[in-house]
Amino acid sequence: MRARSRRRFTPQTIALYAIALLALVILLGPLVWMFGTALKERTEVFTWPPSIFPKHPHWDNFVQAWTGAHFSRYFLNSAIVTLVSVASNVLLGSMAGYGFARLRFPGRNFLFLVVMVTLMVPNAVLIVPLFLMMKNVPFTDPGGWLNTYQGVILPTAVTGFSVFLMRQFLQGIPQELDQAAAVDGANLYQVFWHVILPLTRPALAIIAVFTALSRWNDYLWPLVAIRDPDLYTVQIGLKYFVGQHVTEWNLLMAGAVIAAVPMLVVYVLFQPLFEQSLSNLGTGLNE
Amino acid sequence: MVGQSAGRRALTATAFLAPSLTPLLLFTLGPMAASLVISLLRWDLLRPPQWKGLGNYAVLVADPDFHAAVGHTVFFILGYLPLAFIGGLAIALALNQKLGGLSIFRTIYFLPVVTSWVVVAFMWKWLLNPSSGIVNYALTLVGIHGPGWWTDPAWSMPSVILASAWKDLGFVMVILLAGLQAIPDDYYEAAAVDGAGRWARFWHITLPLLSPASFFVVVISLINSFQVFDQIWVMTGGGPVDSTSVIVLQIVQNAFSYGRVGYASAMSWVLFAAILVITLVQLQLQRRWVTYA
After folding, report:
1. Which of A47, A167, A285 to substitute to test the interface with B, most B CBs within 10 Å?
2. Beta bridge partners of B51
């Protein structure tokens, strides 16, 4: 105890607190400024010197952003794309991860290498052919699956990342557990459903959280695949507030806050999971 | 499971793998192959495509716009990577001291990481607004007349760099902090006994033993920053006067605005090749500077 209190006043400790506080101002400040602007009146936005929070907060800016810009519709679209992607990545990714980690079959290593290749391709390589493919899906209206939910969702319905993560996780779990169940007469599907899935809940959660984050925040592919404003995701729809000549900064910031909130909530709920999985990535690379 | 025939085993494997491998084949590997073929065509999507062989690549090599895009991308990386790395390292070092009351700080530092590029870009565009933004106001307080930021070709890329580093500081911090926490205390105690000072310990223990985590950060950041697009598209659209026109931006414009689908695909393969080569070179070089405990 004495050692601790003595340490607290060293110049080094003070310097470290100063760094931590400076970082807090730098990293939190812009978010506060965004939120403050979202509460301002249209003209108040441009007053000089600027204030961080307005004297009279205009909470109705959020209502205006939500209804005026069809933001509720964009929000729904993003939610549908995100939830379907999470479900399909968790289910399909875990099945394939299980297959690679536990089943023995010819060509396993080659197929896993193929999965790894899909992890490395830049999106920029894929958008042109995916656009052409979705535009020309046979037996559909002109325009194919562009401007549809399936057009947005399918390219990332299952990612190599989800498969890879599940496989890595299962390799860290002793096989005896699932073999014991198999000896008891369970078939592979029962083992997968009743033994593997409950055992791998942390991995499933990581897949779910990372899928949610990357789909909700996704920009490039929805930008290419969607022209119809009824199908805009929130990230695409934000541009509604940017006019040809005038940008309504207060409403734009209100919209941006609405767009950011769902993932901030997901993060706060799953924080330990985030940090643990990222830490494992950083320190586990040498294995 | 025991004593299953080879045929049955293959069937089971198919049941588990096909639902994933089919979409990966259709929506990643197939398009990859298609993109390589398209890069050999002259195609505007209106008229039938013409075979061009390696013509697109030949044009690319001599195209001043593409050279500029490469230059802008490299400018971005040279600004963004050191800023994000040194900033993230400073925060990680501060948090690693187990000072009281800092766990809430850590939560807050990570908030920008989970915010989308689009939101971050709009937010920074407003922060860096030349006439009404809070950054230029803060600069006037210390007697500096702030620049035009994203409206000024000389300051547009620095604006993008600032916004990007801001978003990724938390990511770098989390990875490096995990690396710092993996360094055993004994090393520091032993060094202190041998009379090593604070700086000596930082240079000879912390930095070398942090190198695996640093390596990871550098590899991932480079892969991502070669593909920088979202924040630039939102903040500047590539301008003013093309000062932020990066590689992926030109791919998108060539493919979807200028009707040069083959050329855009060739560009995307050059980008892919560059990322692969740089990642492989780093894997080779890691033996020189990465120390595994």
Report:
1. A285
2. B41
Tens-digit pLDDT profile for chain A (287 aa)?
A: 444 444 556 887 888 888 999 999 999 999 999 999 999 998 898 988 888 999 899 999 999 999 887 899 999 999 999 999 999 999 999 999 999 999 989 899 999 999 999 999 999 999 999 999 999 998 888 889 999 999 999 999 999 999 999 999 898 888 888 888 878 888 888 889 998 999 899 899 999 999 999 999 999 999 999 999 999 999 999 998 887 778 899 999 999 999 999 999 999 999 888 777 777 766 654 33
Domain boundaries, chain B: 1-38, 54-289
Question: Whose CA is closest to B122, among A41, A73, A240?
Answer: A240
Inform me whether the C-beta atom of residue A279 falls under 8 Å from chain B C-beta atoms: yes
Residues of each domain in chain A carrying CATH 1.10.3720.10 = 63-286
Could you report the predicted ipTM of this complex, rounded to two decimals?
0.92
Chain B residues with beta carbon closer than 8 angstroms to that of A280: 178
Q: Are A130 and B27 in contact (CB under 8 A)?
A: yes
**A260 burial level (CB within 10 Å; 0-12, 13-18, 19+):** buried
Residues 6+ apart with CB under 8 A from B22: none
| Global confidence as pTM | 0.93
CATH code for the structural domain at B54-289 = 1.10.3720.10
Name the residue in chain A with its Cα closest to that of B167.
Answer: A27
According to the CATH classification, is domain A63-286 in 1.10.1040.10?
Answer: no
